[in-house]
């Protein structure tokens, strides 16, 4: 099949590399506002260069991957749907929840499939965790712990436009908690601090946060995030039930050092970036998109799914600023 890619920054170029290695993908058509980025992708992956998103959509592509700046997501999603072309879009759907809801309304009733990029749903560990929860082998759940720790903050310009750590980083934890447990979040309480880069505080954001989520069956989820984890990129989940407990990310590349005597775990080189930690998951995610394009699979992460994680992020952001518990119903109504 022929796949278009809109946006060839860090993640777009990574997707181009991944797609070029999939058996189902015969050719790529790429476009980026910066001609040098498109030219580089063309040279590296044998892609055809188009001079605009409209030209990509008119180039006979079977599906399109949106990896452009967040502000461009709504327009590019709608343009692909209007053209009848299945679309994969990196999270978030839009810069604000209001805009995301408008996109959802605009595509209501359309048969064109839309997949939003939440790659953890395709990581083997999280897939296995979901299966364990759904099988009942853990018994009734009582606690979930989800962690995302970055090795270093993104640049100041990125932080200023990110919407805050809950919308940019924690949202991955929120999505995977919903996906693994099959439950919805009803209330949150969030705290945050700034012990590192001054530009994060100056942007009105926190560099380290914690959030307590109450799920609709009474399970408690604890989410921990930070922009500062010098040992590496740390993504983990623990799931505790009355029958058994399991963990995702408890492997030799875990960026954590034990100080127990005689313990050599973890013994591997720590993960240092999200592309390192989730290389296989990204490949599985884009393979799934080719199946969506082929019509053999429904979207594994819909706009509705993405917005649910977004509402949790909105509630945590409000909770952090107002120092109080916030229900999901409250932010939906605001």
Can you offer a commentary on this structure?
InterPro entries: Gfo/Idh/MocA-like_OxRdtase_N, GFO_IDH_MocA-like_dom, NAD(P)-bd_dom_sf. Belongs to the Gfo/Idh/MocA family. Keywords: Oxidoreductase. The chain has 334 residues and is of the alpha/beta class. The protein has 2 domains: 111 residues, 3-Layer(aba) Sandwich (Rossmann fold), CATH 3.40.50.720; 178 residues, Dihydrodipicolinate Reductase, domain 2 (2-Layer Sandwich). 40% of the residues lie in helices and 21% in strands. It contains 13 helices and 13 strands. The protein has a 7-stranded mixed sheet. Strands 3-2-1-4-5-6 form a 6-stranded parallel sheet, with helices on both faces. Helix 2 links the parallel strand 2 and strand 3. Helix 4 runs parallel beside helix 5 and helix 5 packs antiparallel against helix 12. The protein is globular, with a radius of gyration of 20 Å. The chain starts with a strand and ends with a helix.
Look at the structure and name the CATH superfamily of the largest domain.
Dihydrodipicolinate Reductase, domain 2
CATH architecture of the largest domain: 2-Layer Sandwich
Category from helices, strands and their pairing = alpha/beta
How many β strands by DSSP?
A: 13
